[in-house]
Amino acid sequence: MFLIPALMLCVVVGLALSAADTANWFAFAPDEDFSPSPIDMGDWLDAPAGKHGFVRMQDGHFAFENGRPVKFWGANICNARVACEEATAERWARKLAKYGINCVRFHKFTYRGEAGIALGGDDSTTMDPEKLDRMDYFAKQLRDRGIYYGWSPIFWHRIRPGEADNLVAYEEIASWNEAKGWGDHGLVNFARDLQEIHQQLVVRLLEHRNPYTGLCYAEDPALAFVEMQNEDDIFWGATEAAVEHCPTYRRLMCAMFCAWLRRRYGNQERLEEAWGREALHGESLEEESIYPAPCHEHYAPHVLTEDNPERARLVDQALFLHETQNRFYARFAECIRETGYRGPLIGSCWQAGSGLPHVLNLRSDALVGFIDRHNYFGGSTGHKLVPGKVATGAMVENPGSGLLGSGMQQLEDRPFALSEWMSLIPNEWVAEGPPIVAVYGLGLQGWDASYSFATNYADWTPTIEAPWVYNVDSPTQLAQYPALARMVFRGDVSEGKPVAILKLALSELEKGRTGVEQTVEQHGDVKRFGGAVPRDALAAGRVLVRFCQEPEEHEFAEPASWRAAEGLRATAGTGELVWDCSERGYFTVDTAGTQAVVGFAAGKRLTLSDVIIEPQTEFASLFVTALEPEQGLADSRSILVTAVARAQNTGMVYSDDRTQLLEVGRAPILLEPVEATITLKRDGRPTVRALDHAGGETEVLLPVDRQPEGLQFAIGGDYATLYYLIRY
To answer: Alpha-carbon distance 150 to 158, whole Å?
Structure first.
């Protein structure tokens, strides 16, 4: 194995930040009709979507049926917005193509009423014909521009009264939904009656013929994936809450568990021998009263210890829940495949705490298809931007933290996707999110798909919220996509060699042992991962998980240590990426097609292969990108400079120490200009032109000076833009 340079967590300097002076910030005014411009990615998308056949899983990645590999750089579109009006659909498709999005995740769109496209009434699985037709038209517009789409149709599914006769206890589900608004969330993981309704819904959608393509969705290779359920699994806390609220379904779960125990032990006497009579708490097989508590907290590593007197019971419960989940997914997959759909499947995109349930849930998802997960970073006191506490940290301060940490769940032989993510306002450093996912996730770690959450508008949003904190349609996010998508599609950042392969033995899982420490800390949507492999290993090379039948030694590159006392830099094994933590934190990208710096690099002189970047702004994401698909910075005739820093609403007010948001503010969005000097280490006489906020050419040319090291120019507030075009 190769040598891993030492890694070390950043030293955070200055807990109190000075208040931002926005006097020289400029208003974001894209005046956007999404027509072609130098930043446009439309020609990079291989239209129409589906021309190479269905997406398949191949050697741990995605490829089309003709063998052509593909990565998806995408975003979510939610609820009834998938059924937008025709003019909106056309405009939205132009926007997505221009900014380099080649796949969208249609998310939780089967709600009824204004929230989705379902007809409602007494049936939860029939779609409104008019809304379905509009979704069909939108799908055709995306398809024609080379944009794939995947389905995440079900989240908190609400059963309707007309389906009561087919259910074990409709009134209990209705009461649970009234209490929480969560539909049949949690119960569906074991209740066959509810599973059949979910399956019917998805099958009906797949068998629906889109009049604009002439294809049933099951026949359409532009459908890049189908997800069975969003953010749910049998070990999640919501399952136990639902079961406790619905006594009939609780008895059903107990009866299922008792049947499983009879097959395993035969009778009560042998069960008591295996568990110990005290572990039964008066429960019995005959009464079918033995309860397999589903919440992952019952199986956390600090609970499922070797000396726990109820360990045998807990292990059996976990295995029963795991097998029950697997049967649900297997039946669902069979129904989907019977429609003729040949693309990839997802069980769910959620994890299940730490330790045994986490690993068993990962195994369940692997048996279905590829691994898909969600994560967020930053944010404030809720989903909506309101005055309150601000998360002031940045991911660049700690390699492998935040969004990138989700990669601890990547399997060696399965594609990996992050289908919901966002670096959340009012954190001021949100511009770091897209580069981290693109550079280290889809690049070094070899992830296969990204779907940021969410683009819910066919235009830019007037403020940085939309009105939620989850907003792709903001200049700190979408404006960076033309540079990042080029980097991803061209494969500029090389996939790293594994620095760790964790081997999980199925034979040991049967005994309740994972053989590895893996921890998940979760606070709402925000998750942190840790365990046997330090998170910062993700900055050095790939971290993978492998399921094997019998125990095998884990593989670690240079296992002595991931970091040394003096180690303040993490250099990827490919040599293309350096994560520097000697102060507050930044990383550089040095590839043939893309060279960049992201983070707190003010005052640094960063010498890369073809450019020298000298940022003066405290924090920035600054990318220098070759615009042609087949050219690099050394020979490209057109080069794009993308420079993004902080953004605020007009009138947005933070406390002096930046830890509290005092005023949300109003439109327009204000952008901090990125001040930097850039030197091109090549001959020739290029022009450097400021582009407008939509990437269109202006008449403004920047002075270019000949220096010993190359051609030098300065970007900054005088130009009030995010984009500059270098043309030879």
So the answer is: 22
Q: What's the CA gap between 586 and 602, in Å, rounded?
A: 10
Q: Which residue has the tokens 């991911």?
A: 395
> H/E element holding 590?
strand 586-590
Is residue 509 within 8 Å of 497, Cβ to Cβ?
Answer: no
Amino acid sitting at position 671: L
Chunked mean pLDDT (size 10), the chain, 728 residues: 34 38 94 92 97 98 98 98 98 98 98 94 95 98 98 96 95 92 93 98 98 98 98 92 95 98 97 96 96 96 96 98 98 98 97 93 98 90 86 93 94 98 96 98 98 96 93 98 98 96 96 85 68 85 96 79 55 93 94 98 98 98 97 97 98 94 96 98 95 97 95 96 98
pLDDT number for residue 565: 36
First to last CA, the chain: 42
Short-list 717, 725, 476, 719, CA closest to 620: 476
Extract the runs of DSSP E, i.e. beta strands, from 630-721: 638-644, 647-650, 653-654, 660-663, 666-671, 676-680, 687-691, 697-701, 705-707, 710-715
The token duo for 422 is 């966002």
Assign a CATH topology to domain 40-243+319-499: TIM Barrel (3.20.20)
Neighbours of 477 (CB within 10 A): 23
User: Which helix (H) or strand (E) covers residue 197, if one does?
Assistant: helix 192-207
CB-count exposure of residue 361 (10 Å: 0-12, 13-18, 19+) = buried
pTM here is: 0.94
Residue 337 DSSP one-character state: H
Report residue 76 CA to chain centroid gap: 10
Of the candidates 295, 413, 291, 306, the one whose C-alpha atom is nearest the C-alpha of residue 357 is 295
One-letter identity of residue 394: A
Q: Which residues contact 413 (CB under 8 A, 6 or more apart)?
A: 59, 60, 546
Alpha helices in 456-515 (DSSP H): 481-490, 506-509
Residue 575: how many CB atoms within 10 A of its CB?
A: 10
Strand order in the sheet with 148-152: 345-346, 223-227, 148-152, 103-107, 72-78, 449-452, 416-424, 371-378, 526-531, 518-523
Angstrom distance (rounded) from CA 585 to CA 398: 8
- Quickly tell me which residue has 């995010």 as its tokens: 722
- Rounded distance between C-alpha atoms, residue 567 and residue 482, angstroms: 34
Q: Which of 525, 349, 544, 541 is nearest to 451 (CA)?
A: 349
- Report domain extents, the chain: 40-243+319-499, 570-727
E-strand stretches of 441-497:
449-452
Q: Which of 184, 208, 74, 152 is nearest to 346 (CA)?
A: 152
